[in-house]
Amino acid sequence: MRLFRLxxxxxPALAAAQDLEDAMRRFTxxxxxxEREAAxxxxxxxxxxxxxxxxxxxxxxxxxxxxxxxxFHELQRLQESVSKGFGSVVNVLPGRVIVxxxxxxxxxxxxxxxxxxEIVSINGVLLERLATEQLVGLMEESRKRPAxxxxxxxxxxxxxxxxxxxxxxxxxxxEAAFLLGxxxxxxxxxxxxxxxxxxxxxxxxxxxxxxxxxxxxxxxxNPGGLLPAALETSSLFLEPGQTLVTxxxxxxxxxxxxxxxxxxxxxxPLAVLVNARSASGAExxxxxxxxxxxxxxxxxxxxxxxxxxxxFPLSDxxxxxxTTAYYYTxxxxxxxxxxxxGQLNPSRPGEEFRTASGRIVxxxxxIQPDYPVAEKxxxxxxxxxxxxxxxxxxxxxxxxxxxxxxxxxxxxSDVLDEFQAYLAARKVLPGIAEWSLVRGWIxxxxxxxxxxxxxxxxxxxxxxxxxxxxxxxxxxALGVDLTRPAE
Length: 487
Description:
Structural class: alpha+beta
Strand content: 15-25%
Largest sheet: 6 strands, antiparallel
Shape: globular
CATH architecture of the largest domain: Alpha-Beta Complex
CATH superfamily of the largest domain: 2-enoyl-CoA Hydratase, Chain A, domain 1
Number of strands: 21
CATH class of the largest domain: Alpha Beta
Low-confidence stretches: 1-14
CATH topology of the largest domain: 2-enoyl-CoA Hydratase, Chain A, domain 1
Distance between the termini: 77 Å
């Protein structure tokens, strides 16, 4: 009887092995016939790498893919967070690239580029003829070797020419860190790489460390990155031994990742901002902090990418990225949203889970915010002003005519009148009602662009944060009154 039960147990596995053997034999027979009889000889690499393997992976999920040697090498390079560049922050518009900030000691600074410079050509290619996507591609290509750029500078009649030689530089994932008000910190993390947790801790210390009254951690548009970096980030705020994430899969033993025993977390009130482009590692951080009632989550439902992707090196430098498991938050929610191809998601939409304090949080993929904030659609005037680059070019001209802008600068009625005259000279004449509706937004954007060029992008970000509805909602949720002095 025992042998009979063992045979029954082995039957499905034996049947699967037989099916695989039959399928492989049929594939070999078909390929042999094509190679022998086709009018044109088949390209083995194109047929296998570009056809058979992708077709086999396609029914699984959108993230299981075959990587050619070139793609596998690029994936490894991206994980290093080091790349070649020129060290300038630019605003990319259709047909235009305007320098906002030049970082000290970088190729751009050594060559003599300055905030407000408009790059009109790169290696002889005129930018005015290019769409935004083409511009981005050209700039990426130019970072691989020395580039010649022609620049239009306010106050200079002739175009200036610079030769920039790219250098390897660390690409920081902690993009911005400043105080929103007395004792209220803000840090934006754009991705998770090897240095993210250390850089985040350093940014927090610069803002006041454990003396902070509250912190807003902005993970909007953060697509994820390295899992250890995301776990280290969560560990900055959670107690030793608390669960960070659980991994479960068909061929993967269920494992829990916990905060290490020596952790000394920050204890100030915390808000985490997410949106529909926050994914993977960003969702692991937000989910762990939400489930332990350590942070309030503010914004929009996150993307819902909770797949564990394992990259297997193959022969000839190729690779295979394969989904091997799913990520679950400490309360048991699957981060992965239902896939379009119909696979079942372990957490059903609307399914209830409970945080450490008993609060209800819902599953179904992604992280649902505690305080939802809807994005307001821009008006026609706002879309035009953003797309045209009017704010940036006006700021360049304004700073040329008003050098030495103080840090107490405000976009007063006089400045708004100047901007209206600037638009009118370019035949842009918005109606009174249309202008009045977004007057406060225009004033804020003008100040931000002027600060970008006068004091650096961080200061411009700080100005824009003053009207960011999601940030303001987070501060309200944390009970932070910016008018009250820090203790």
